[in-house]
């Protein structure tokens, strides 16, 4: 179905003198022609082309669209400009539907509110979790109360950071991811909380000394993680999607940027190691391990992108663990 671009045509006299493009959009799977756009300005962005496509296909709002140069290739970024792409004046793009989308903020809020509430249900020993005689009783071990404070602090911090600190570059993610992510966070929170708050829970073997050390590690890493999030936020002016090389700031917690590309993950790992030491609980150790594996995969990907994007990227940095990984 042909669709036109009146807004782009009004962009100015200079642009009117330029040679316009014809853009055809094919289905990446079937190769059927979905849309033909004529007189598209050379400086039109992929974001603008998505908006034009949306007009003729209202069910595919821009965040749902993946526009590619090759049916199996990478999605083009919204900021990419038509005349800078390797296409002729008749450009062919391929479209894939990314499925229903949900905002990142909603995703994070759902993911993080779950563990917070679930943990507290176990902490307060609401009925139907442990034997009825334990309903609404409290643990006699002070480490159980401390662990609850630390766990809650961690997720409240994450919620507040999601709302007030992070400047995300993508507005949305596929709706189906939320089920996967919530199963992960909510499931682990329930499993850990069940054992830590269990009436038969036994405190750490080295007692108070072990708990104090664990608390110091936990708090140190929480503050470190927060410092990195602030440093990353300050790299990106409000409303932009700029990515820069992060460098150490005046805050000593950020000096780890000298050696690591994703120190927020390093500190996150440290926090969970601290929590494992504090609770001496196997499910917590398992959650720490799985989180570490996942964050290592992400950190390696981000490290690779930094190397690809910035020629002057500091060579001493490792993805997540200094000199090791
Ligand atoms: N326990 C676990 O299993 C686990 C797993 C994952 C995350 N987490 C926690 O959740 C936090 C957030 O995770 P995340 O994966 O979203 O972290 P992230 O990718 O490092 O991003 C944090 C924020 O900084 C921005 N950012 C990153 N690098 C940037 C750069 N070079 N220039 C400008 N802005 C940049 C990101 O924007 P973009 O939107 O552009 O990415 C995002 O808004 C982590 O730090 C960690 O504390 C925990």
TrEMBL record:
Domain 3-oxo-5-alpha-steroid 4-dehydrogenase C-terminal: 172-325
Main location: endoplasmic reticulum
InterPro entries for this protein: 3-oxo-5_a-steroid_4-DH_C, SRD5A/TECR, TECR-like_N, Ubiquitin-like_domsf
Record field: catalytic activity: a very-long-chain 2,3-saturated fatty acyl-CoA + NADP(+) = a very-long-chain (2E)-enoyl-CoA + NADPH + H(+); (2E,7Z,10Z,13Z,16Z)-docosapentaenoyl-CoA + NADPH + H(+) = (7Z,10Z,13Z,16Z)-docosatetraenoyl-CoA + NADP(+); (2E,8Z,11Z,14Z)-eicosatetraenoyl-CoA + NADPH + H(+) = (8Z,11Z,14Z)-eicosatrienoyl-CoA + NADP(+); (2E,7Z,10Z,13Z,16Z,19Z)-docosahexaenoyl-CoA + NADPH + H(+) = (7Z,10Z,13Z,16Z,19Z)-docosapentaenoyl-CoA + NADP(+)
GO cellular component labels: endoplasmic reticulum membrane
Alphabetized UniProt keyword annotations: Acetylation, Endoplasmic reticulum, Fatty acid biosynthesis, Fatty acid metabolism, Lipid biosynthesis, Lipid metabolism, Membrane, NADP, Oxidoreductase, Phosphoprotein, Transmembrane, Transmembrane helix
EC code(s) of this entry: 1.3.1.93
Function, as annotated: Involved in both the production of very long-chain fatty acids for sphingolipid synthesis and the degradation of the sphingosine moiety in sphingolipids through the sphingosine 1-phosphate metabolic pathway. Catalyzes the last of the four reactions of the long-chain fatty acids elongation cycle. This endoplasmic reticulum-bound enzymatic process, allows the addition of 2 carbons to the chain of long- and very long-chain fatty acids/VLCFAs per cycle.
Name of the molecule in the record: Very-long-chain enoyl-CoA reductase
Biological source species: Sphaeramia orbicularis
Biological classification of the source: Eukaryota, Metazoa, Chordata, Craniata, Vertebrata
